[in-house]
Amino acid sequence: MITTADETLLRHAIGIAARAVTLGDAPYGSLLAGPDGAILAEAHNTVRRDNDITAHPELKLARWAARELDPEAATRTTLYTSCEPCTMCAGGIVRSGLGRVVYALSTEQLVELNPQSGEWPTVAQDGPALFDEARAPIDVYYRPY
């Protein structure tokens, strides 16, 4: 359930997205807030500027949280973002241990506003293969001491 406090922080994330456009960057902004609503970090999309396909604000903040917060503190945070996280960012958010995500536009709404946002090709994948060879480094790494 989205509260009035959530809406305030979500508006701030939308403002970050609007500022990104004035800088020549893509219109996506995010912030990470602690349980008291204090903003811990914020970021905007710098994919073009950094020539880095992973420079989405949600992933930047997930990386920041994984690096700067202990796991218990991360679970008490909320990521506010102007658009629903893509699958790349969603994976990073899960791995970083963030507690909650609140977003403004859904992916479907974004695609309606900008149809090119949904034009991603599929990539062929083959596997699994070479199980015994592939498991060897896994077994060594996860072997109990």
Automatic annotation (TrEMBL):
Pfam families: dCMP_cyt_deam_1. Residues 4-121 form the CMP/dCMP-type deaminase domain. InterPro entries: CMP_dCMP_dom, Cytidine_deaminase-like. CDD domains: nucleoside_deaminase (cd01285). This is Nucleoside deaminase. It comes from Streptomyces yunnanensis.
